[in-house]
Amino acid sequence: MSLQKLKAGFVENLKSVYPSDEASNLFNLAIEHLTGINLRNNSAATFTPDGCFMKMWSEMEQRLRKAEPIQYILNEAWFYDIPFYVNQSVLIPRPETEELVEWIIKDHQGKRDLSILDIGTGSGCIPVILKRKIPQAEVISCDISAAALEVAKKMLVSIKLK
Predict the structure, then answer these.
(1) 18 in Cβ contact with 25 (< 8 Å)
(2) Are residues 142 and 101 in the same domain?
(3) Which of 77, 110, 117, 154 qualifies as a cystine partner to 71, CB 3.0-4.6 A?
């Protein structure tokens, strides 16, 4: 099965939930995540799916038909310039939050003795990016949810930031 056929079936199967352009974008995200093929840069790429892939693909389509966010299905949401692990225990990082982080970075880049407290850290995207971009700052994050803290810890371990 060609990627074009897989994409056509995907878009068709999701047309009751997503407009075709959004379903097409979801397809590109999913293919890149699952296979490493970036269709935006390589539209002529070929891929031969095996039975295991098709089972995962079918399960993903079912979840998308229920309008589950792709970020939860892939357990990944991009924030700023890196992918963050996410699941249903945390909110998906929003572009508006990225704007807030950019504003903080811009206003506090060269400041010394800077302390930042992130309450309700969720995925940990805010403190991770702030510490990466303002390394002299002391950044502390907390959350009342033990499940959310586990999500944030996964990210901290994966980037070796403490």
Answers:
(1) no
(2) yes
(3) 77
Query: In the predicted model, what is the mean pLDDT of residues 104-115?
Result: 92
Using left for φ > 0, alpha for ψ between -120 and 50, and beta otherwise, residue 122 falls in left
Write down the pTM of the prediction: 0.86
Kindly state whether residue 81 falls inside one of the protein's structural domains: no
Helix (H), strand (E) at residue 75: none
| Number of domains present in the structure of the chain | 2
Report, as an integer, the average pLDDT of 57-75. Answer: 95
Residues 109 and 63 in one domain: no
| 79 in any annotated domain | no
3-state secondary structure 96-127: HHHHHHHHHHHHHCCCCCCEEEEECCCCCHHH
Section 101-108 average pLDDT: 96
**Distance in angstroms (rounded) separating the CA atoms of residues 129 and 150:** 18
Dihedral angle over CA of 83, 31, 86, 70, nearest 10: 130
Q: Mean pLDDT score of the chain, rounded to an integer?
A: 90
